[in-house]
Write a structure and sequence with these properties.
The chain has 97 residues and is mainly α. It has helices at 3-20, 25-37, 44-53, 58-65, 76-87. Helix 2 crosses helix 5 (76-87). The longest helix is centred in the first third of the chain and has 18 residues, at 3-20. The radius of gyration is 14 Å and the shape is globular. The mean pLDDT is 87.
């Protein structure tokens, strides 16, 4: 990997991290661990869906992730993946039992 590519990837990762930090603590608890643990292994379409989703409104994401509303079709899969990750007690070694 070239230095420019590495720098671009690092810059994208930092942008994603800061865009994943939201105004709602509950969203931070769902999005940041998902970004850190799962994002790099996602298919390109799922990564694109994540990037698009985090440009949206906090209250919409919260409603989708808490299963209070059905997400738009383009976000159904990524919302499901985030929910699955959050529901897995083994996903974060720092998580209290």
């Amino acid at each position: 990997m070239s230095e420019a590519t590495t720098t671009d990837a690092a810059a994208l990762r930092k942008r994603l991290y800061w865009h994943s930090r939201r105004g709602m603590w509950e969203l931070d608890l769902l999005l940041i661990p998902f970004l850190e643990h799962c994002y790099d292994q996602l298919e390109a379409d799922d990564q694109a869906a994540y990037r698009a989703m985090i440009t949206g409104e906090d209250q919409d994401m919260f409603a989708w992730l808490m299963q209070r509303e059905t997400p738009p079709p383009e976000f159904v899969r990524i919302v499901s993946l985030i929910q699955q990750h959050a529901g897995n007690a083994d996903n974060d070694p720092r998580r209290p039992v």
